[in-house]
Amino acid sequence: MAPSKKKHASNQACVIPGGFTVLSVQFNSDSVAQHKLYVKEHKVRSERSSHRPMDRTLFVLNIPPYCSEDVAKQMFSQFGSVQSVELRDHPGSSQDSGPKMSKFFRPAAKQGFKVGYVVFENSSSIAAAKSHPHNVPLLVCTEEQWIQQYTESFIHTDNLQKIVDSFMEGYDKRKKEHRNTQKEHIAELRKKFEEDKQRIALLRAQRKFKPY
Q1: Distance (Å, rounded) from C-alpha 59 to C-alpha 119?
Q2: Would the keyword Coiled coil turn up in this protein's UniProt record (predicted)?
Q3: What is the DSSP code string of 94-134?
């Protein structure tokens, strides 16, 4: 009876202090080495109205550098449909708002372990992830997908030229609009200056004219 109990226990989820569930990760089915992820339901009241809904967001620690957002999305999709995945260097609020830039102009991403926010389409997926047996590893990616990602990482000159041209057109447009705004502001200041000069001249003339 003892061996059967041990086998049964190994099929249970492993929960550690802090409420994190341990998930094992393997590069592929033939890999011997495993990596550990630590997940729990995301519950931050200050982000209740953000794009990280508390009832559908899984907070993930210790995501390896080779695991991209696309890979993480596929890996966690076994628990249900994934709406979005966000990887960050540190826990916290969402990425700073600002103009969205092409990947060719963004600073190089830091190659280190990350934290993640996985948003599912259904809240039941959170329970499925938290109850996943720790001895059943998640597969990171297949070899074909890695080859595809490697191929897509190359920058095609035609696409890059289009992106550069589009960026420069936008830059020239914003610069022209800024210049026009400056010209209008200078013209308005000149107009006001001339009006003030006429007003002062009129006041001086009125002081010199004394009919009595």
Answers
A1: 9
A2: yes
A3: PPPPS----TTTSPPPP-S-EEEEEEESSTHHHHHHHTS-T
pLDDT of 145: 61
CA distance 167 to 28: 40
- Count CA atoms within 13 Å of residue 140 on its CB side: 21
pTM above 0.85, yes or no: no
Q: Tens digits of per-residue pLDDT, 72-112?
A: 999 999 999 999 999 999 887 655 545 556 655 666 666 78
d(CA 62, CA 37): 5
The residues with which 115 forms a beta bridge, in sequence order, are 88
Residue boundaries of the structural domains of the chain: 10-152, 155-212
